[in-house]
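Supplementary Methods. Inverse-folding protocol.

Structures were first reduced to a discrete structure-token string of length 344. This string, shown here, constituted the complete conditioning input.
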């Protein structure tokens, strides 16, 4: 439970990964740059033009180690895995729950309640840290507006209402991203709302990249406990869409991705030089930017906290796995309700 299997992120263009005995080797321009024992790895994520030998792909699949390819912007491209595992009885329970008239609504409310509460936590934390009284007041008012959405969520009678409350809360929350930045940094990181595919400003590029990394971790967590990441309760089911992973992601956007993005900017660990501003208006992290973000993301996952429900000290990187296990227990009927992750 306490051991955190590391994820290896490879983002250097032209890198080649191969198997050498019980070790993963990373070569760049025919020079060995890294070697990692396979038993230290739980997943391998390749970002951009990164290649891998068939032998290593086969070994990863055999060991149950996921191999994922993301675009340079962090968009999911492909995943290689071995034979489907997991408990078929659990998946049957998941499919029955998806067809039940009430269960999807209850779970959707839980996922979005966590998202709204964790977003409020970000706003109130920034309000406490702000040295500007006006900024602090604006953030507190936004937090109160999200509290109203939270109360209304309890009475949401269908999925459309849940999604509507989430959309309204997201609009209010993202409108205050600039206010959560230090005043001296706002001009260089001006944020005018969420956009993607492609991102059109540095903050959107940073958020999209972090969300993609976190989505990969959520999908791996669900698969590790035997759940089908394609069959969700909040997000609509579409071919190739990891709907349940997107459901689980909602709990962690604010505490793991948004907060990390704000910290990187406010501490000047990342700046405009870490982005490529392309013709047509798209903005993407460059190689140095991706390296900085990946390092910070991995360090963040190694930090510990006390899980509010389990009341145990756990690595932050284990949170998606713990929540996936709690969701599995609920779907099996071991618990009456699913308790999402609520940041303290």
């Amino acid at each position: 439970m306490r051991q955190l299997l590391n994820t290896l992120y490879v983002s250097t263009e032209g890198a080649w990964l191969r198997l050498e005995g019980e070790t993963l080797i990373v070569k760049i321009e025919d020079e060995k740059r890294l070697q990692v024992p396979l038993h230290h790895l739980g997943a391998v994520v390749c970002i951009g033009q990164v290649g891998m030998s068939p032998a290593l792909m086969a070994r990863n699949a055999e060991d149950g180690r996921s191999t994922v390819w993301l675009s340079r912007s962090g968009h999911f491209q492909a995943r290689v895995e071995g034979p489907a595992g997991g408990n078929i009885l659990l998946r049957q329970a998941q499919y029955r729950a998806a067809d039940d008239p009430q269960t999807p609504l209850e779970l959707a409310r839980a996922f979005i309640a966590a998202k709204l509460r964790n977003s409020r936590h970000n706003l109130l934390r920034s309000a406490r840290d702000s040295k500007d009284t006006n900024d602090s007041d604006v953030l507190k008012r936004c937090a109160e507006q999200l509290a109203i959405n939270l109360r209304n969520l309890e009475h949401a009678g269908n999925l459309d209402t849940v999604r509507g409350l989430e959309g309204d809360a997201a609009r209010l929350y993202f409108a205050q991203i600039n206010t959560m930045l230090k005043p001296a940094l706002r001009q260089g990181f001006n944020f005018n709302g969420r956009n993607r595919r492609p991102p059109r400003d540095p903050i959107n590029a940073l958020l999209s990249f972090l969300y993609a990394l976190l989505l990969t971790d959520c999908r791996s967590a669900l698969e590790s406990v035997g759940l089908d990441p394609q069959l969700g309760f909040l997000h609509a089911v579409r071919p190739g869409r990891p709907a349940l992973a997107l459901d689980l992601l909602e709990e962690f956007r604010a505490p793991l991705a948004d907060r990390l993005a704000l910290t990187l900017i406010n501490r000047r660990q990342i700046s405009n030089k870490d982005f490529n501003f392309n013709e047509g208006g798209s903005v993407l992290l460059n190689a140095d930017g991706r390296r900085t973000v990946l390092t910070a993301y991995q360090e963040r996952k190694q930090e510990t906290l006390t899980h509010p429900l389990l009341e145990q000290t756990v690595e932050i990187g284990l949170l998606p796995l713990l929540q996936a296990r709690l969701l599995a227990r609920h779907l099996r009927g071991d618990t009456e309700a699913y308790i999402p992750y609520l940041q303290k």
